[in-house]
Amino acid sequence: MNKDLISTDKKKESIDTFNTTREKIISSDRRFSEKNDHLLFENIDLYDISKKIQTPFYLYSELEIIRNITEIKEAFKNYPNTKIFYASKACSLIKILEIVKDNEIFAEANSIYEIMKCIKSGFKGSEIIFNGVLKKKSDLEYAIKNNIYSINVDSFYELDLIEEITNELQIEANVSIRIEPNVSSPTHPDCVTAYHAKAGIDLKDAELMCKKIINMPYVNLKGLHIHIGDQIPIIDPFSKAVKVIIDEAKRLENSLNIKFKSINLGGGIPVPYKYGQGNPLKDYLYTSLNSSDFANIIIDEVLKWRDDIEICIEPGRKIVSSAAVLLTTIYSEKIKTNYDDKFNILDIVNWKFIDAGYSILSDSLHFNWFFYLFNTKNIKDDYTLLTKIAGPLCDGGDYFHQGVYEEFFLLPKNTSLGDTLAFIDTGAYSIESQTIYNNRPRSAVALITKEGNIELIRREDTFDDIISYDIY
Asked: Which residue ranges does the record assign to the Orn/DAP/Arg decarboxylase 2 N-terminal domain (predicted)?
């Protein structure tokens, strides 16, 4: 078949698929609806609210956070001895942490300041897990003094520091051993944490570390810990990893005549960023995997071993990803022609420039992530205008690379300057990754409370904020 015809067919298929998805979102998604052609999020008119709060800003839903927590709790209801620790790195705004605390789950932290934020939000030290590949002595001292639920030990060097601190202070510390199960997974390369990765100790070293801990007067060994990565779209890697850690736990219990108190299976429950049927082996942004799939694999394997051990999990993305939208305004536009090196026309590109670039939305450092994008004041018309969406930063790469058709997004043909666009499913890692590159401020964040009110929970940076660390 002619290459141009293939391209035309693919383009038409992408447009049709997107419009079908858009219609399903406004008709059946629990978060979204439509009124007077405007897109509503938890019954809040996104176009109207974007004219009351300066864009770009994030809008979170307390109800959606609660729904997601409830889903995970429900998935583990058949194993009541389960503790859920929210991975605070997904979004550590104090108000979000307070919502998590109010819904009776715990917290996981990766730095001393994450621990401090969790404590400020109302968590006790005994409700926090401390992870990380580099924990300074001062970090460990703070964690130990605050009776952290478990320090997940990542190296023999770290364990030596814990022994030194506990002996000096004569205070007990609870630890688990993070092992690498050597399980690969088809996710974004930067999300892999348990296959040729920096985290954890070799499986073969677990017995030696256990023996060392057993002989430490102030260090209590709780169990083993794994975390195989984030946004893993299929169940097989979880299944393999759970079997690895349980087999090792059983072996160590028998070999050392000990009994572990807990087993920590980490997080990684994925969320769909692209909706509909997709091949997850080719695209980790599709997934049909849910909390029950994750729970069933864990519970089934644990029950083959013991029915009295505590299960710990550390979900992050699953709790907040679907709970936010990013609102941004179109401020400029242009048509540009792309030529080859002989000045033959390759294509003509419609560009829309918005006030949210990669300093505002990058999903950590994953520049090729995907988010659906909608015009908030025109959600019903067919979206047929193929356009590239760019941010305001000086870098040539500051545009959104994964569109619905190659690098192109779709908007209604009557889209104009001043219109507000909404990126959906932006609740995880986006706030945490913002920068003041080009001295552009980090964004405000608002919350739709469970009662339906709007609260500002983070203000936009001011110029004084941006220069406040400079010494002059």
From this structure: 67-321
Ranges of each domain in the chain: 3-60+322-467, 132-313
Q: Let me know if 394 is a catalytic residue.
A: yes
Summarised one tens digit per residue, pLDDT across range 48-106 is 999 999 999 999 999 999 999 999 999 999 999 999 999 999 999 999 999 999 999 99
pTM beyond 0.85, yes or no:
yes
User: Is residue 278 pLDDT above 80, yes or no?
Assistant: no
Q: Please give the full DSSP string across 384-439, using - where no structure is assigned.
A: -EEEEEE-SSSSTT-B----SBTTBEEE-TT--TT-EEEEES--SSTTTT---GGG
In the 8-state DSSP scheme, what is residue 229?
A: B
Residue (of 441, 468, 383) closest to 14 by Cα position: 383
Residue 445 reports pLDDT greater than 80: yes
Give the CATH number of domain 3-60+322-467; options: 3.40.50.300, 2.40.37.10, 3.40.50.1440, 3.30.70.3270.
2.40.37.10
- Tell me which of 91, 118, 191, 394 is the catalytic residue: 394
CA dist 319 and 324 (Å) reads 11
CATH match for 132-313 among 3.30.565.10, 3.40.50.2300, 3.90.190.10, 3.20.20.10: 3.20.20.10
Cα angle, residue 82 at apex, residues 291 and 109 outer, rounded to 5°: 85
d(CA 319, CA 269): 9
